[in-house]
Write a structure and sequence with these properties.
- The structure is a single chain.
- By secondary structure, the chain is of the alpha/beta class.
- The chain has 2 domains: about 200 residues, 2-enoyl-CoA Hydratase, Chain A, domain 1 (Alpha-Beta Complex), CATH 3.90.226.10; about 45 residues, Lyase 2-enoyl-coa Hydratase, Chain  A, domain 2, CATH 1.10.12.10.
- The protein is built from 10 helices and 10 strands.
- The strands form 2 sheets. The protein has a 6-stranded mixed β-sheet, with helices on both faces. A 4-stranded mixed β-sheet has the order 4-6-8-9.
- Helix 1 packs parallel to helix 2.
- The structure holds coenzyme A (COA).
- Coenzyme A binds next to strand 6.
Length: about 260
């Protein structure tokens, strides 16, 4: 597929998808959603890709939401289809079996905030602004915001943001745990890449198992979650990476994880 609304780049096992419609602050239209979906499929089927970074083109915006110009064309049915497309796309993003970092370099509003909270964690530039402003348009978040944001920052913080539609700056987003770290705009990508490289150097099987155990455990009781972890732990122990990791420790050398999923 030829990408026109995103940039898709892979370097040293780290994929970067850049939302690339800076003239509309990288707002998500249907074509962008299709391209993102296709790129995620490419990533999922490429064993060499270890980490994904999502960011926005320009210095002003990550993604300023769904493209509002589409909304007046919707009836109830087409609106439902649009939201379903968004949900299945962001579920696919959340379930990608590699770590995904949102590098939020400006506005992350509406669908942009919803993309960021479907990633594993968020790093932001100092000028980043987060919000779910749909209430100002007489609608509500439609790509998972009412479900993922309360799970991420707690029900009270999520309700305040969703009911008021207010934008919060990166520093405040950091204090409520929405964002892990905040850097000056010019340092953001190099800091994100450092963390991506650290994760890319770990075992593929164990990264995948850790992500799946955490994600699948979030919506079940503790006992069921611990049982998910037990199975995932046992599976890791059977991997080539576990042999390498433990041998390297005992031989007092750095581990060289090269195991694949088919070992
Ligand atoms: N959908 C479509 N176009 C959008 C957009 C969106 N979500 N967000 C921004 N744009 C467009 C603007 O219409 C403008 O286009 P124009 O140059 O043709 O007029 C361009 O992007 C630049 O935005 P502008 O509003 O001029 O920038 P600003 O710095 O004054 O304000 C925002 C930035 C993010 C505060 C403002 O654009 C905004 O509120 N956007 C909508 C956010 C939103 O409600 N998102 C949720 C959608 S469900």
């Amino acid at each position: 597929m030829k990408y026109e609304n995103i940039l898709f780049n892979v370097e040293e096992g780290i994929a970067t998808i850049t939302f690339n419609r800076p003239e509309v602050l990288n707002a998500l239209n249907e074509a962008t959603l299709k391209e993102l979906s296709h790129a995620l499929d490419e990533i999922a089927s490429n064993e060499d890709i270890r980490v994904l970074i999502l960011t926005g083109a320009g210095e002003k915006s990550f993604v300023a939401g769904a493209d509002i110009t589409i909304f007046p064309t919707f009836n109830a049915l087409s609106a439902k289809l649009f939201a379903q497309t968004g949900h299945s796309l962001l579920n696919k993003l959340q379930e990608l079996p590699i770590p995904v970092i949102a590098a939020v370099n400006g506005y992350a509003l509406g669908g942009g905030c919803e993309v960021a909270i479907a990633c594993d964690f968020i790093y932001a530039s100092e000028n980043a602004m987060f919000g779910l402003p749909e209430i100002n348009l007489g609608i509500i978040p439609g790509f998972g915001g009412t479900q993922r944001l309360p799970r991420w920052v707690g029900i009270n913080m999520a309700k305040e943001m969703i009911f008021t539609g207010k934008m919060i700056p990166a520093a405040e987003a950091r204090t409520i745990g929405l964002v892990n770290s905040v850097w000056p705009q010019e340092a953001l990508m190099s800091e994100v890449i450092k963390v991506a490289k650290t994760m890319a150097s770990k075992g593929k099987v164990s990264l995948r198992a850790a992500k799946q155990a955490i994600n699948n455990g979030m919506d079940v009781n503790l006992g069921t979650g611990c049982s998910i972890e037990t199975d995932a732990f046992a599976l890791c122990l059977a991997s080539q990476d576990a042999k390498e990791g433990t041998s390297a420790f005992l031989e007092k050398r750095a581990a060289d994880f090269r195991g694949g999923l088919k070992d």
